[in-house]
Design a protein that fits this description.
Distance between the termini: 63 Å
Largest sheet: 7 strands, mixed
CATH architecture of the largest domain: 3-Layer(aba) Sandwich
Number of strands: 19
Strand order of the largest sheet: 9-8-7-10-11-12-13
Helix content: 25-40%
Structural class: alpha/beta
Number of domains: 3
Strand content: 15-25%
CATH superfamily of the largest domain: Thiamin diphosphate (ThDP)-binding fold, Pyr/PP domains
Number of helices: 18
Length: 542
Amino acid sequence: MPATVGDRLIEAIRSSGCDRVFGVPGDFTLLLNHMLDQHPGFFVGAADEQGAGFAADAYARLRGIGVVMVTWGVGGLKLVNSTAQAWAESVPVVVISGAPGLAEREGNPLLHHKVKDFDTQMQVMRGVTEYAAYVHDAEAAPQQIAEAFAVAMRTSRPVYLEIPRDVVGLPCGPLPPVPPPHDAQPDPEVLEACLDDVQAALADAERPVMISGVLVARLGLQAEVDALARTAGYPVAETLLGKSSIGSDDPWFKGVYAGAASSDPEVRQLIEDSDCVLVLGAYITDLNTGLFTADIERADTVISHQGVTYVGVRGYEGVGVTHLVRGLVARLGATAPGRQPAPRVRPPFTPSPGAPLSAGALFQALRSRLGPGHTIIAEAGDSLMGSIDLRPEESGFLATAYYASLGYAVPAALGAGLARPDRRPVVIVGDGAFQMTGLELGGMARAGVHPVVVVINNDGYATERPMMDGAFNDVPRMRYAMFPHAMGSGTGVKVDTEEGFVAALDEALADDTQLRLVEAVTPRDDISPQLRSLTAELGKRV
């Protein structure tokens, strides 16, 4: 039998290196779901479409591309938030939506799931993706499918494919070769001039440093940045969004630089006292800069992003961070270490007998125990800010540290666990965010993912209370430790002392056969020092 549009879509997914499709089935996707079922375990169901989108996002951050598939209208429009996050934070997610068949549209009927017009969802998704295609012509389908995957991988942004259900089974031709990147090579003279300028700036500096941003991870530049740091001897800090873009056990790693919210005063002083800061693939966002409290002289800064590099105020169009890093590595003859460094000793934490659990003690305990073998997933808010000083391995930390959507961390554990089965997901999430997507834990055992989930129960939205408090920051009180029992999988425990938390955490980390949930009760007005400094600044703007 000739290959169909659905066959070509599955071929593109598999050839991209993706071995999972996250989603929720619906009547407009059932044929595609049936075709995916011919590959056991390929389709991974979620409790909700947004949860599927977040799982695909986490998978993509660790594997280079992710795929989510939902039905039209009620499914696709739920994915707007997770897709917007993927665009904001440069995550290559392929969003696939089934749609009413071409024959069903004749006469413009009021079909279920329809909003205004048949192209409403397409118009919405175009606003949050880098490429969007309506795959309604079998002859053009292979090109559209190939182009979508190429754009996602080339730009590290989400893309969208909408496929009417009566097109899925139509025969079509082969997939064309993946189009080469439009900006594969900059002008050689411009590149050489840029490299000369950057090298001169670094050579003239007495205290050069590097800052590793999110694009170092998204574009696969970790090995080159390691080689550059190792050969040149530059100390390296990370941004908050770029946390774990290099390994925290590397000898050149110094911490997270985020202005007033930096991981420690020493790393802030290191960066701000430098006379040449090489910023690689970092977004200059409010959270990355501690609400713009970062203090770096523009004249002493080299900033390299996608498609452009600035040396002070001099710009080199077409020279992106990939070209700059690889050019510097080639000129220096830099080589990456032959093996992973031995883990640094984590600062020990000894609980005080009988002491109530505080936010500070909770994060100190986590820092003393988490690292190699874990993918740490921190929810936006204090779960993220308190995690600034954790020490994950390379690519071992996930967070939405720019778009900052609540509800990400729990479903992200599903994607992370399947993308890197050699590492156990450890989720740090507040009670408010857990209420949004906690039900995604229900299907993880079926997929073979057994995370540790720390739910910080501080009785509401602790991030917002220091800015402006009120009953609107309260959330319904729930028995979080009972969730595993209610879902029929895993074990939960509730603790409110330092000793209780450490004992529960140690027991959870030692048992990788099931979900382990630790409900950690902390005072409602107790937050991490990093969050306190940020919310004090935010409160001035409310």
